Amino acid sequence: MAEDKNMHCSFCGNHKDAVTKLIVGEDVAICSECVSLCQQLIDDEKTEVKTKPVVQKTIDAHNILRHLDKYVVGQHKAKMVLSVAISNHYKRIYNPPPGDLQIQKANVLLIGPTGCGKTLLAKTVAKYLNVPFVVADATNLTEAGYVGEDVENMLGMLLTKAGGDVELAQQGIVFIDEIDKIARKSESTSITRDVSGEGVQQALLKIVEGTVASLASGGKRKHPNDTMVELDTTNILFIAGGAFSGLETIIKNRTTGTSIGFGSELKENNMVNCDDLKPDDLIKFGMIPEFIGRFSTNICVEELTKNELTKVLTGVKNNFIDQYKHLLKIDEIDLSFDDDAVEEMVMNCMNSKVGARGLQSEVERVLMPHMFNSGKYRKKGITEINIDKELTLHPKGLL
After folding, report:
1. Lowest model confidence (mean pLDDT) among 7-21, 150-164, 329-343, 353-367
2. 320-329 and 306-314 helices, crossing angle to 10°
3. Which ranges in the chain belong to alpha helices (H)?
4. With contact defined as beta carbons under 8 Å apart, do 29 and 21 qualify?
5. Alpha-carbon distance 7 to 14, whole Å?
6. Helix, strand, or coil here: 29?
7. N or C: which end of the chain has fewer CB within 10 A?
8. Beta-carbon neighbour count of residue 264 at 10 Å?
9. DSSP classification of residue 224
10. pLDDT tens per residue across span 220-244
11. Closest CA to 186 of 111, 258, 284, 279
């Protein structure tokens, strides 16, 4: 009976004489026609996955804003402007305009102090849209041929993040951090080359606007023996961020004059207001006019308030306290904080003038003795740690 079963295909039932080839195994057999059909199904599935649109979520500005609200505290105006810019960018990609109409790409410039969420805004948007995202540090960039990284290196990073998929990389987002650090050293022309300032701005122009760059396959550094791939940057969104310290002074001098002489009033050093910002202000800061023209959407990110920093520490998704609760829970220890302790950590962070970046350092400082002794706590049967104001002011272990 088993011998008769192996004379027929277990899938379609055809006799071995009716097919080209019958592959026989233990108590099972498959004909060449079924093998071909299975291969075709696999190929079709691969093609379907490859042609699937990159953006999985809706690109409606309201939905983008709602997602940002889950992860980024405050900055409502900045999040609203960014949501519209992102929405318009991907609408432009996936809905080509009719006829000869051309819609220009609007790259984004984020201006605000350190620790206020510039990088987090860009990263959260990229994760929501499910597109490749990389962060490039402008301070490492130099003109081609000089010591440092070429501007094309960040495109190689993007291609690597996309797994070598050129089509996927061409719809990604590049965040250029510390963009204010490549401001030219002075408004006047220098006889020496400013290879890490104005030179980098010049080198970025074509890439940011849209060009076809030749990269080594896999996004690695160029090598004579490497296979080269072409990456079109026309649909890559570039978001640049920087603190632009001193820009508010330039704006004030233009709008209200200087505070020099008898009877002058000392003006408070307020944050940059994008409503007051003019291209000439950025030019005086050291950005070249051509570079400013490539970043048509300017977004000012405000310094976080005490309540907003508290929410970053305790209320937002992926907040620091929840992260450290999880780490200590691995050692079977429940962690809690008094309100006074949270307030003390927030005030220390505000005094350090580093924004939300200082919150993790504060939590690390307070919890370091407990994390170091977590193994001993478990052996001694200590399963709960409550951090009060005293343990915040003077961190110490419980043993």
Report:
1. 7-21
2. 30
3. 2-5, 32-50, 61-71, 76-94, 118-129, 153-161, 166-169, 198-209, 247-255, 279-285, 289-294, 306-314, 320-329, 339-352, 357-372, 374-380, 389-393
4. no
5. 9
6. strand
7. N
8. 10
9. T
10. 555 555 677 888 999 999 999 888 8
11. 284
Q: Any residues with CB less than 8 A from the CB of 261 and at least 6 apart, and which?
A: none
> Residues near 104 by Cβ (< 8 Å), separated by ≥ 6?
296
| pLDDT tier, 182 (very low <50, low <70, confident <90, very high otherwise) | confident
Cα separation of 4 and 219, whole Å?
56
Listed in sequence order, the residues at least 6 apart from 164 whose beta carbon sits closer than 8 Å to its beta carbon are 217, 218, 219
Q: What is the pTM of this model?
A: 0.72
Q: What span, in angstroms and rounded, lies between the C-alpha atoms of 90 and 103?
A: 11
CA pair distance 235, 225, nearest whole angstrom: 29
State the Cα–Cα distance between residues 336 and 322, nearest whole angstrom.
10
pLDDT category of residue 345 using cuts at 50, 70 and 90: very high
Tokens of 14: 């055809």
